[in-house]
Design brief:
The protein is of the alpha/beta class. The protein has one domain (8-307): 3-Layer(aba) Sandwich (Rossmann fold), CATH 3.40.50.1820. Helix content is 38%, strand content 18%. The chain has an eight-stranded mixed sheet with strand order 1-2-4-3-5-6-7-8, sandwiched between helices.
Amino acid sequence: MRADEIDPQAEQAVERQQRIPMPHSRRGLKLLRLLSRATVWIQNRNVPAVGATVDRTIPGPAGDLDARLYLPDADGPFPTVVFFHGGGYVLGSIATHEWLCRHLTRASDCAVLSVDYRLAPEHPFPAAVEDAYAAVEWVAANPDAVNGDGKIAVAGDSAGGALAAVAALMATERDGPEIEYQALLYPGIGVEEGQQSVEENAGIVLDEADLEWFRDCYYESEVHERNPYADPTNAGDVSGVAPATVVTAGFDPLRDGGRAYAEQLVRDEVPTRYENYEDMVHGFMTFRDVDRAREAIRDVAGDLADALGVRGTQ
């Protein structure tokens, strides 16, 4: 499930990232959010071009949500990929995933709507889930607002991958919007103490204390943790959800949880492509100087394009 060693480019990216330790306090979190905002602003001065971007708000269950629409350099309308960023439900933003969303737009020829959902610990479960599903419902009801053709997919990485999976499950169980596809990038799903990936890889990008702190921030009780809309591996039946791509990384503590959900999808006869990048780490698809990040984005974008009928039509 993992290579003999981490890809050298990914290892360098991890070393740079770990110069700033993960805080485990509200005060430290506020400081890290401020630092991240400044760092990302500098990084995003040089990003891949797309046809256009549109910053807007969309209605959420507790107020407007910020969103950014990335449009391909072509004539629309386009299928719409609703994207949810990672960050353990406590970090991350549209800006932190600017590079990834732009590459996904370019490689898929789909519009990508990146959504800022409410973060914990200020807004614990189910706030992020409610925001994510509201965004999907809004896109389905307002295709003209996103230059959309009515076809919708969901995607996300890490915590955002979990939100994408939950949105797909909710849409199926609630007879909601028709979701054509879900792309789950090293999703924060099905992670349990004692898993081989946790024991082997704790301390590479994420350690066990980080995972525990994320859980403590996001969940107010163990009952919430066992809710299928918090973690879809808790669902008894996921048949009928959208076909999926599930990506994991060999040196990621979250690897075995993502693989378990891919297996659950297959058992319930959901068409699923599972890909484990054996020499990669958690978060690698946002690493700008890692060649395999671009390779993985192209592969996922190809799955989305195929599922949404883009190739051969534009």
